[in-house]
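Notes from the pairing session

We agreed to fold both candidates in a single pass and log them together. This is the raw record for the first candidate, unedited. Please don't reformat it; downstream parsing expects exactly this layout.

Candidate A
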Amino acid sequence: MLGSTAPTPQHGEPTIFFFEGERAGLSRPRARLAGFRAFLAGGALLTILTVALQPATGIRGCSNYGGNGNGTAFDDPIWDLLYPLLLISWISAVIVEQLTPVTWNGRGALLIIARGLAAVMATVVVACGAAFKLLLLCR
């Protein structure tokens, strides 16, 4: 049988997901932004990208204003595909960050779940709001 050097947790002790020698990267004190880095960095990058692309913010800025047919809020229609893919990638990055043990460092299960749900829900709300505004404006 396989033996383990990890001690078995006693009743009431928090479960440690790593063996003692494997905690090298987790020995630092927990950061307040742990679990929100992908949310903040991705949001900042997407905001900068959106400002740089200068999409139409009103009906008069659409490429099909005064006519009919499908228009786009962006100067280049390829961003109608790339922009939602970037938003989905941002949501995925936030979810993956919430599933990594580094974001759980020293926190209780309830706090891990609450912070994870807050980060994922905020990302989905912001991403869907941006997508609906920009991608459905000129249709």
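Candidate B (folded immediately after A)
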Amino acid sequence: MKLLATITALALFSGTVAYAAGPHSHADKPLHGGVVAEARDIDFELVAQKDKLRLYMRDHGKKVDVSNATATLTLLNGADKQEVALVPQG
């Protein structure tokens, strides 16, 4: 489910997704215990916890300013679909 959520979240930001283990990525490791994927030189790390989801973004190791960003995460579980709004924090 974490990988599917990551793929869905990244699809909202970019039409092309390269996975961290893919041939063209620099294989960044998670800094927050999540799943990392890369799209357009931005590393996305999705961290799923019991009661919350966090999406961290880095551009060549530097935090990305998401203060004006909006995103929707689509969670799929079989035929069930749930959409969750992601809001900037910090």
